[in-house]
Specification:
The chain is an all-alpha fold. The protein has one domain: Orthogonal Bundle (Fic-like fold). The chain is built from eight helices and no strands.
């Protein structure tokens, strides 16, 4: 089995990076996919540490961009910047700002009016973010972290999201993608269930 850096880029569950985005990789030592995954995980751990000493508003557009930058900024130059290129999933790039603003407004309304149970509010918001796919990559990881932060803000425990790393656990990742597709079809029950599994 090969472990080339951009293996899986043609897989419909991954977000392919274009050539220019690939060139924005910061660490020059990275030549294998597992090295990239490890560098991103270390960067995400730094972001989690940063979060532990701050209160951030996940219902704020600037905070979302800063969180993405904190999660991926040691690995990618485009971290925290909205994508400008089309993807196999997500909205057109010119709609990102508008759709993010709408997702934030929706979630603020749900929270203020207790429209749904806390878990459902957090999962709905997380799903909206990943469906928009605002960044070149890292959208799933960002949306799950944001879901966790909103759940905690609403008095709930952090989600388990399948209890395993979605990078290395193919079965868990497959279940997550299937739950996302169900949510895309307006059936959030599998995603809510997966988030707490």
């Amino acid at each position: 089995m090969t472990d080339t850096l951009f293996d899986g880029q043609d897989d419909d569950t991954n977000t392919p990076l274009d050539a220019e985005e690939r060139q924005q990789l910061i660490p020059s030592y990275i030549t294998l996919r597992r090295e990239l995954n490890e560098a991103e995980q270390i960067n995400i751990a730094h972001a989690a540490k940063w979060l532990s000493s701050r209160r951030g508003d996940v219902l704020d557009e600037g905070f979302l961009r800063e969180l993405h930058r904190r999660m991926f900024g040691q690995v990618w130059r485009w971290a925290g910047k909205y994508r400008e290129t089309p993807r196999n999933i997500g909205v057109d790039a010119n709609r990102i700002r508008m759709d993010i603003a709408q997702a934030i407004d929706d979630a603020r309304f749900w929270v203020a009016n207790a429209t749904y149970a806390p878990d459902e509010i957090a999962v709905r918001y997380s799903h909206q973010l990943v469906a928009i796919h605002p960044f070149p990559n890292g959208n799933g990881r960002l949306s799950r972290m944001v879901g966790d932060l909103l759940a905690i803000h609403l008095g709930q425990p952090r989600f388990s999201w399948g209890s395993q790393s979605l990078i290395d656990a193919n079965v868990t990742r497959t279940k997550y993608v299937a739950a996302l597709r169900a949510a895309d079809a307006h059936n959030l029950a599998p995603l809510i269930s997966f988030a707490r599994s």
